[in-house]
UniProtKB/TrEMBL annotation:
It comes from the Archaea. The active site is at residue 89. This is tRNA-guanine(15) transglycosylase. NCBIfam families: arcsn_tRNA_tgt, tgt_general. Its cofactor is Zn(2+). It holds the Pfam family TGT.
Amino acid sequence: MSQFDIIHKDAAGRIGKLTTPHGVVETPTVMPVINPNLQTIKPSEMRDFGAEILITNSYIIYRKDELREKALKDGLHALLDFDGPIMTDSGSFQLSVYGEVEVTNEMIIDFQQKIGTDIGVPLDIPTHPDVSYEKAKEDMDITIGRLKAARELVKDGMLLAGPVQGATYKDLREECARELSDVGFDVYPFGAVVPLMESYRYADLVDVIASAKKGLDPVAPVHLFGAGHPMMFALAVALGCDLFDSAAYALYAKDRRYITSRGTYHVDKLKYLPCSCPVCIAHTAEELKKAHNCTDLLARHNLYVTFEEMREVKQAIWEGNLLELVEQRCRSHPRMLEALKQMYTYSEWLEECDPSSKSTLFYCGPESSKRPEVLRFNKQLERLTIEGSVLIRAYPTKIDKEYDNVLMFKPPFGSYPQELAEVYPFNAEVVRTPDYESLETAYQNTIKLVELNPDATYTFLMKDTFEHPLVEKLAAMDNFTVVPPKSD
């Protein structure tokens, strides 16, 4: 089994160290895809961009005599001229495209071991997202059978991946992950998700990731197959993905597309280059368009941006503000915003993963009211005992000493002891004029607090910007008085 050490956490994301036969890889990270037949950028150059690990296709190497013989003679690392860890896919992608491949599961596992692969992948069945439940279940069962057989074939040396299948059926993804976890693999790729990303079905992708994660050991390293656009790194990492592979840097370049963390531009439509990588510093937009090596330059820019975004994600984990980065990135596209909303339907699970103490929470919009920290506070209300007279204030006042207890009111949390005002997460930076969603959550929490402590009497000093229908429900309680709003 692999050694995967988690160094730092935020939400379900983590910074980790994955030990492989050719060295330790810090995650989360991106594995640039290397086509052994056509290398846009040489593997030996990849470290210059920040790559610690590469991924290539063992089936392509196996099928071409020249590549196969050199790999068998000199090893995979000599073939690619790269001395770091290399993961190899098995031909499952070709299987999904063409319907058949010229190798068996046993043959490709044996070949990957012989050429010195660091992380090998069995020949699983990648199931299209829109197949019937019965078909997804059938493919999943075949995949599990093949993975179990592969596990018996690999004893020492090469790490073995266990791809989790199940299409878009959440119960199948969780079931597959749970069964594979019982067998024991070194890395768990989530397979057949490229069609979801190609059609911008990011909300469905959230379901796939969260469901599969629920079936795995929480510390198991996860690989999201085919996820190479930096726009969605923060989201996927926050859901617990550790490894990504990207052919997008090269494929987009061939189509003259220029990647950013917010989306993609066609280079011919650019007037300026919104980047400070070496490529963009050395060229104007017009020079880049007309360059004879435009494809190569675009591929390099795309790689620089890809690794820059992953470093941004890692820094956010380190500082404890990954979810703020997720919310910022998800506002770059309407389908990503759908994914953000879907992610917070799993706040109960995220709250179990999320550290209980970290940096200041920044409220970034209505979705922030569903964050794990807010949910955790709702649960903690049951531990708060209040007796006597209570002042709940939404603004500073001089009458605090007239009450037995003083609570502060801050959306989206609601009411909490003023002694905790500078303690995480109540030291949150929030907007002065709360949105409807944050007020609703805050008032729901306040109602719960009052119901849990019915013998106390409450006076609420609210602001005129805090108007909400739930205020009427509070005012209707026998032990609750709402003081008319004070204008800002």
